[in-house]
Design brief:
Radius of gyration: 28 Å
CATH topology of the largest domain: TIM Barrel
Shape: elongated
CATH superfamily of the largest domain: Aldolase class I
Number of domains: 3
Strand content: 15-25%
Structural class: alpha/beta
Number of strands: 16
Helix content: 25-40%
Number of helices: 17
Largest sheet: 8 strands, parallel, barrel
CATH class of the largest domain: Alpha Beta
C-alpha cells in the first residue's frame, strides 16, 4: 500500500497556539528532531510574514536536513496584481525552500465577504500563483482552505477552485477542515466524491474544534488521501490541529500503513516530549500511545490481569512507541504494585509477607491523610527505600525560615533561610525568590550544591496545590505536588500539611532526595 506522507506544521500552525512564541533556535531544534524521526515534510513558517521565519529558512538553505523536506508557506497572489509583483510569492521563492505550500479560498463566502473580490478573480489568483511557482521549478502543495465548508455551501465552485490549482500544475491538493466543524462520515463521503474529477494526489488538514481532527484525518486516509498535515502535541490555534503522534500510531498499529520509518516508531514518545518541552507545553498524560498514563493500570483487578497477560487490558505493547507499562500505586490497587515496585528496586517482597502488609497499611494511612502516590511515584519509591533499607538521608534539616515582604513601591518578594547538616558539616544559606516556595527551593539547592553539584541539572517543572478539606477554611490541609526534571527524566513528589510551606518543603526535599538517589545508582 502507498506510504502516507506526514507533513508537519508544528512550526507554523502550531506556533499560532495561544501562549506559544517560538524563537528561531526553538524552531531549528524542533525541525532537527522531526527530521531525525523521519517526518517527510516540515513546514518552517511563512517567510513573507516575519524576520524569524526568514532567518529559519536561511539556516536550512545553508544546513540541509538529512531526510525531511523543508516547506515554506504562503498565500495566493493578492487581488488585481501579477504574481511577479506579489511580495508574498517573491518571499517564498527567496526562501530557497524546495517545496512551497500556498493556500487559497475555496468557500465562496470568503471570496466575496473576506477578500471582497469576484469568484472568477479568485480562480485566477489560484491558477496564476500555482503556475508561477511551478515555473520556478518548485514542488507546490495547494491548501484548499475551508474546503469542506465551501463544498457543502457551493460544491460546484469548490470543485472549480481545485481544478484551477490542478490545471496549473499543483502536485498535491490538500483539503482543509479549517473551522474544525465536520464529522468523520462527512469527511469520508466528501473525499470519495472527488475521485472522478481529480487526478492528482489528495491530502488532509484538520483542525480540532470538535475533538475530531485525528478521526477526520484517518477517515480521509481511508477514503484515499495520501498526505496528512498536522502538528505534534496537537498544537494549533483555538482547539489545535490533528495530533501527528496519535495519527502515526494509528496508521502503524491499526491500519498497517507506512508513514515514518518503522524503526523510528519507538522514538515517538521522546520526540513528543521534546517538542512539548521546547514549546513549554505539558504533554497530556492521557495522550494515546505516548502519554504518561497511556499504559498505566490502577485497579487491582486490572493489574492482576495485565501481569498474567498484558493483552487483557492493553491493545498494543507500550514499548512499540517508546513508552512503558506502569502499575499505579494507590489504595485501590492492593499490594501488587508495592511488590512490583520493590522488585524494580531489587527487593524480593512476597505480597503475603508481613513487610508487604505493613507497607500497604502505611500507604493507606498516608492516603487517608491526603497523600496521593498515584501521581507521585518518586515519593512512593522513597517511602519504600526508607522502609525496606537502612536508608541514610543525603542531608538533615536543622531549620528553615521564610518571610514575604511587600514594599512601598508595590514590589513583593520572598526570602528564605535554611540550616542543614551534610555529612556532619553544617550549612547555612539565604536566598530570595518570586514567592516563598521559590525562595526556599533556591536556598536549599544553593546550600547543597557544594556537596552535590549534580543538582545543577534539575529544575522545578510544575507546582500544584490542592485544598483537601475546604470546610476548614484557612486551616485546611493542602496537598502539594511538585514535578521536577533533569536532562533525562521527570518525576513527581508530594507533601501534605495544614501549612502550605511545610507541605511544599516535604515535596521539595523528596524531589532533591530522589534526584540524588538516581545519581547514586
Amino acid at each position: 500500500m502507498e506510504r502516507i506522507v506526514i507533513y508537519d506544521t508544528t512550526l507554523r500552525d502550531g506556533s499560532q497556539t495561544e501562549g506559544i512564541s517560538f524563537s528561531v533556535e526553538d524552531k531549528i531544534k524542533i525541525a532537527r528532531r522531526l527530521d531525525e524521526i523521519g517526518v517527510a515534510y516540515i513546514e518552517g513558517g511563512w517567510p513573507g510574514s516575519n524576520p524569524k521565519d526568514q532567518e529559519f529558512f536561511r539556516h536550512f538553505a545553508e544546513n540541509k536536513t538529512r531526510h525531511a523536506v523543508i516547506a515554506a508557506f504562503g498565500s495566493t497572489r493578492r487581488c488585481g496584481i501579477k504574481p511577479i509583483e506579489d511580495a508574498n510569492l517573491l518571499a517564498l521563492i527567496k526562501s530557497q525552500a524546495e517545496t512551497i505550500t500556498i493556500f487559497g479560498k475555496t468557500w465562496d463566502l470568503h471570496v466575496t465577504d473576506v477578500l471582497k473580490t469576484t469568484l472568477e478573480e479568485n480562480l485566477m489568483m489560484i491558477h496564476d500563483s500555482v503556475r508561477f511557482l511551478k515555473k520556478k521549478n518548485k514542488e507546490v502543495f495547494y491548501d484548499a482552505e475551508h474546503f469542506f465548508d465551501g463544498f457543502r455551501h457551493n460544491p460546484e465552485y469548490a470543485m472549480r477552485t481545485l481544478h484551477a490549482a490542478q490545471d496549473a500544475g499543483a502536485d498535491v491538493l490538500i483539503l482543509c477542515d479549517t473551522n474544525g466543524g465536520f464529522l468523520p462520515e462527512d469527511i469520508r463521503k466528501t473525499v470519495l466524491s472527488l475521485k472522478n474529477g481529480i487526478h492528482i494526489p489528495l491530502g488532509i488538514h484538520c483542525h480540532n474544534d470538535l475533538d475530531m481532527a485525528v478521526a477526520n484525518s484517518i477517515a480521509a486516509v481511508e477514503a484515499g488521501c495520501i498526505q496528512v498535515q498536522g502538528t505534534f502535541v496537537g498544537l494549533g490555534e483555538r482547539c489545535g490541529n490533528a495530533d501527528l503522534g496519535t495519527i502515526i500510531g494509528i496508521l502503524y498499529s491499526k491500519l498497517q500503513r507506512k508513514s515514518i520509518p518503522d524503526k523510528n516508531i519507538s522514538k515517538l514518545m521522546d520526540a513528543a516530549y521534546f517538542i512539548g518541552e521546547v514549546s513549554n507545553i505539558k504533554l497530556s498524560d492521557s495522550a494515546p500511545f505516548i502519554g504518561h498514563s497511556a499504559f498505566a493500570h490502577k485497579g487491582g483487578v486490572h493489574i492482576d490481569a495485565v501481569i498474567k497477560n498484558p493483552a487483557a487490558y492493553e491493545h498494543i505493547a507500550p514499548e512499540v512507541f517508546g513508552n512503558h507499562r506502569r502499575f499505579v500505586t494507590s489504595e485501590l490497587a492492593g499490594k501488587m504494585p508495592i511488590v512490583l515496585k520493590a522488585e524494580k528496586l531489587n527487593f524480593k517482597l512476597d505480597k503475603k509477607s508481613p513487610q508487604a502488609k505493613a507497607l500497604l497499611k502505611q500507604m493507606q494511612e498516608k492516603e487517608r491523610q491526603g497523600y496521593q502516590f498515584e501521581a507521585a511515584d518518586a515519593s512512593f519509591e522513597l517511602m519504600l527505600k526508607r522502609t525496606l533499607t537502612r536508608y541514610k538521608p543525603f542531608f538533615k534539616l536543622e531549620g528553615f525560615k521564610v518571610s514575604t515582604e511587600k514594599r512601598f513601591d508595590g514590589k513583593v518578594f520572598a526570602e528564605a533561610t535554611v540550616r542543614l547538616a551534610v555529612n556532619g558539616e553544617e550549612r547555612f544559606n539565604a536566598s530570595t525568590g518570586d514567592g516563598p516556595v521559590d525562595a526556599l527551593d533556591r536556598a536549599l539547592r544553593t546550600a547543597l550544591l557544594p556537596f552535590y553539584p549534580q543538582l545543577q541539572e534539575m529544575h522545578l517543572r510544575d507546582y500544584k496545590v490542592r485544598v483537601l478539606d475546604p470546610q476548614e477554611g484557612t486551616a485546611a490541609k493542602v496537598r502539594v505536588l511538585i514535578e521536577s526534571q533533569d536532562l533525562h527524566d521527570s518525576w513527581t513528589t508530594v507533601g501534605v500539611h495544614e501549612n502550605i510551606i511545610e507541605a511544599s518543603w516535604e515535596a521539595l526535599t523528596d524531589s532533591i532526595e530522589y534526584k540524588l538517589l538516581k545519581a547514586k545508582k
